[in-house]
Amino acid sequence: MCSALLCADDREVKFYVIDDGIQELTREMISVRVRSLAKALCLDVQLKFIDFSSHVLPPLTPLHGTLTAYARIFLPSLLTEDSVFYVDADIICNRRFSLFEETIEKQPKALLIGCQDPKLKILKNDCPWAKEIDVGDHELPYVNTGFLYMNLKNLRLFGLEGKFYDLAKDGKQMRFADQTALNFLCRGQIALAEPEFNILWSLGQGFDKESICNIHFVGSVKPWDPALKRDRLPQVLLFHSTAHSFGFESTKFTNWDETRIHFVFRSRTLLRMLFYKIASSGKFKKWQLRYKKWMIMKSYTKAYKNSLIERTKVLRQIDFC
Ligand SMILES: [Mn+2]
Question: What is the pTM (predicted TM-score) of this model?
Answer without folding.
Answer: 0.87
